Amino acid sequence: MKNKLTHNLGLKIAAVFVALLLWLINVNINNPLITSSYTNLPVQLVNTYSITGQNKVYKVLDNSDSVTVMLRAPREVLQNISREQFVIRADCAQLTEENLVPIEFSLNDKSLENKMESIRMDKSYVHLQVEDQKTRQLGIQVEKTGKLPDGYVAGRSVTETNMMSITGPESVIATVAKAVVEVSMDSVTSNVEIVARIRLRDADGNEITSSDIQKSIQDVKVTVPVYPTKEVPVRYSSSGTVASGYALTRLEPSVPETVTVAGKESLLSQLEYIEIPDTELDVTDATEDVTVTVDVRKYLPADVTVAGENFDGRVTLTARIEPILRRTYEIPADEVQILNIPEHWLAELLPDQKLEVTITGLQEDLSVIDREGLTPHTDVSTLQEEDGSYASGEHTIEIKVLLPEGVRQEDTVTARLRLVRIAQEE
Predict the structure, then answer these.
(1) Residue 8: its pLDDT value, please?
(2) Who is most buried in 6, 110, 317, 394, counting CB within 10 A?
(3) Which residues are CB-contacts of 369 (< 8 A; sequence separation ≥ 6)?
């Protein structure tokens, strides 16, 4: 037996090696090692609550949650593998300070995984952007676009709800300046009721469409009333008495003089003017012009409002106050006209009397008066007795001057007048 085993031993060993080589060749020919690539494989993020539970939000950057996997294994092994068997996860609980989450790959069939010669991925981490989550309350504004026909105006817009909330990354929420809904008013002559999409705008008016922002509501019902308009004048007066030595010269027209109002046609037809009570313009003890601003909306009928986007309902009322001036003139006695001298009587002012008359009025009225235009005069008929007779001798008589409207003589001026009866010839 020993001889049989050792006989041609070299040949026998060579035969074993040849057989082994043939087996390897056969294996490689029939079941070779190959590499397969699987692209666009999604990475499942797990334990995301470790981020969101801290009131933070995350965003995947650079499409890093999609990987390509390269498997190297015998052909027969890879033929039994499909994409559905891949388990690709990134555990957010392992988030690094650089906001990287390691990617882990496995097969749901561990027996196949053990037959892999190599498993490689084109990336090792999912890169996240992590920041605080922010919630803000916003008032919903209505923006009217287009132009109404002449003679119509839009009233105050009403939304079904006037508040909403937005939630998202703090950096994105900070860019939101306002929430608006747009309503077209082109050629509209009656009330508008629509359901409009709420749009977010930045400070420059650009729309923000980021999918990172969650809105509490998407749409809102908007009602915009449309009214006919009418232009009506403003009337007003003043109350009180100005300071002594001053006069209320005039009430200036209001600014503006007329106001455009809007309301139902039946209400506008009854409105001829806006009456502002005199209590709004009190000139008591005033020594200079008094100007007040009044909101005319307080004095409009119910359901009538002011119209015009650039008019806030306020009008300016002005009372002109001017000082009363004094001027004193000396009048020679021989310039005084003596009126109504009775027949057969002689009347003359005693010479060397100092006559002074003081007149008061506004600057514009006094400026047209000079001494020569005063025309001083006296009336002898004021000396007549009850029985119609006159008494000879010296009398005290009042001197008056002719004055234009707005000017008055301040004090009573008197002079001594001699009245003598003229003897009649027989």
Answers:
(1) 63
(2) 317
(3) 327, 359, 403, 404, 407
Residue 426 lies in a domain: no
Q: For residues 16 and 13, what is the distance between their CA atoms, to the nearest angstrom? A: 5
Q: Are 220 and 160 in contact (CB under 8 A)?
A: yes
CATH number assigned to the domain comprising residue 268: 2.170.120.40
Q: Please name the residues in contact with 294: beta carbons below 8 A apart, sequence gap of 6 or more.
A: 236, 276, 280, 314, 315, 316, 317
Residue type, 141: Q
Alpha-carbon torsion (18, 24, 25, 30), positive or negative: positive
pTM: 0.52
Of the residues 158, 193, 224, which one is the last residue of a structural domain?
Answer: 224
Mean pLDDT of 100-109: 92
The residue ranking higher by pLDDT, 352 or 347, is: 347
CA–CA separation, 115 vs 354, rounded Å?
141
Report the DSSP pairing between strands 376-379 and 337-339.
parallel
Domain count, the chain: 5
